[in-house]
Amino acid sequence: STCLIGALQEIMGTKYTCTAIIGLLCINCLSNSVYAWHHQPSQTILRHTTTATKRRQSALKGAQFQENAPSSRRTLLSFGAAASFLKLDYACANDSVGSKRSSKEALQEAASLVNFGRAEEAKGGQWDKATRYYTKAIEAAPDYALGYSNRANVYVIFGRLEEALTDYDRAVKVSSQPGAMYEGLPDRWLLFLNRGTTRLALNRDPQKCVDDFDQAAVLRNKPETLVVQNRAQAYERLGSYNLALGDYANAVALKSQEVQPFWLRYAGVLFEARRDQEALVVLNRVKTKFSGEAEVNVALAAILVGSGDQKAGLALYRTLPAVQRQKYGDARFLDDVVRWPPRLKEVVLGLQKTSAEMGLEELQRTSEVAWK
Asked: Angle at Cα 63 formed by Cα 258 and Cα 221, nearest 5°?
């Protein structure tokens, strides 16, 4: 959910133009770094420009919304998923065949209003004004899916996820009508990806998330890292770790030289499958890139202990600040925020207990020395 363009290589190409990446519900994020560590899916808002009109291209030229977004939301990826919220950009309605249920004039008006909304975003993140334009577009042509999808994207940026999900539902429904102007066009997969990631962020029915990502994969009709990453997390929520493992492995294989935060989840699922040495290889690569992140070090310490190297794991764990050890030693945090697999959670809780006991022993020895 950043004009941190260097981090977009996995999904960027000549086909896409980056307009904004805004993090969703981020927790303890590094607001000014390319990769920000937090625990809810983040969003990549991109716009497809191959069919855009000259007017729309002009309005969007040089747009870098993220610099105007709240700094607490200026993030890219997360351990939860690299969820991507992508803006569809079909041709303007006056260049397309309209829906049977909307007049040509209404569609032209809605398309113009959507363009005005995007222009407000491009001028400096005028989100409220943009939302008003998208709402007017919906009122002008209730069958115009881009009105719903663009408004949903803005709702996501500001954490209004229930409203975003409602709009994505409407966009999917409208775009699925027989004879709709979007039927058969390649970018419809983005609607399903966006809806699935919104459901994932809301922790809403992981099977429906899987269904959305499956549909996105079918419509995309080519390997797409964002789809398989998010589907892997949905499988985790379902407890289907073998299926999650397959998707994470495929996502990593697509860009095996580009270490990304979701690799930590991949390592956790490998550890759950008792493929401990493979988990260590993956997580050591993550640590090389993100050595200062507590989440990385906690997970690595736990996997070291679980793989038999208790001394190294405990030593690493005890280098962390006490506040971090306390946070990751909370079962509710592990269940509700980072949502780590059961085995990893169990080892971390054991580490915290051992560390706490060692701390008490050290405190007791120090007190005895001071007393003497």
From this structure: 50
- CA-atom Rg of the chain in angstroms: 23
Per-residue burial over 251-271, b = 16 or more CB atoms within 10 Å of its CB, e = otherwise? bbeeeeeebbbbbbbbbbbbb
pTM attached to this predicted model: 0.73
3-state SS, residue 172: helix
Determine which helix (DSSP H) or strand (DSSP E) holds 270, and give its type and residue range: helix 262-272
171, exposed or middle or buried, with CB in 10 Å at 0-12, 13-18, 19+? buried
Q: Which letter does DSSP use for residue 32 in this model?
A: T
Report whether 214 contacts 119 (CB < 8 A). Answer: no
Q: Sorting pLDDT into bands at 50, 70 and 90, what band is 136?
A: very high
* Exposed / middle / buried, residue 242 (Cβ in 10 Å: 0-12, 13-18, 19+): exposed
Compute the C-alpha angle 50/54/55, nearest 5°: 125
- Token pair of 15 as six digits: 């086909």
- Say if residue 372's pLDDT is above 80: no
pLDDT digits (tens, 9 = 90+) for 227-242: 999 999 999 999 999 9
Look at residue 20 and give its three-state secondary structure. strand
Place of tokens 């209730």: 142
Residues 6+ apart with CB under 8 A from 103: none
Give the H or E element holding residue 47: strand 43-48
pLDDT in tens, 106-134: 888 998 999 999 999 998 878 999 999 99
